[in-house]
Design goal:
5 strands; alpha+beta; 6 helices; about 45% helix; single chain
Length: about 110
């Protein structure tokens, strides 16, 4: 995948492509995430890794198990440096609602998308 251009590129193109290629890996995570990315290049996306055919679609669909709220800039930095996630969380720049244990599975998910 190389360098991520934007959250929109990631959620509209790269993640759907990787879900289509490896649906069984996505289903191992077995959760529905809602990403709320604020600022330039952001948006809301529902990533459903619990259904028979995992998907990533714009907007809030269904009931997420875990919601991640972060600015587009911090999100991009977090993708290139996953350890930054905890730091942003403790600084209050990354909000996680729902099941916080599911947030810890995101590294696995994003490395799959990579």
């Amino acid at each position: 995948m190389g360098k991520v251009g934007s959250a929109q590129e990631l959620f509209n193109e790269q993640i759907p492509q990787s879900l289509a290629k490896s649906p069984e890996k996505a289903k191992e995570i077995n959760a529905i995430y809602l990403f709320k990315i604020t600022g330039e290049g952001g948006g809301d996306w529902t990533v459903d890794l619990a259904s028979a055919s995992p998907s990533c679609k714009p907007g809030q669909l269904g009931t997420p198990n875990c919601t991640i709220e972060v600015s587009a800039e911090d999100f991009k930095n977090m993708l290139s440096n996953p350890a930054l996630g905890m730091q942003l969380y403790f600084q209050g720049k990354l909000k996680v609602t729902g099941d916080p244990m599911l947030a810890t599975k995101l590294n696995k998910f994003f490395s799959m998308a990579g």
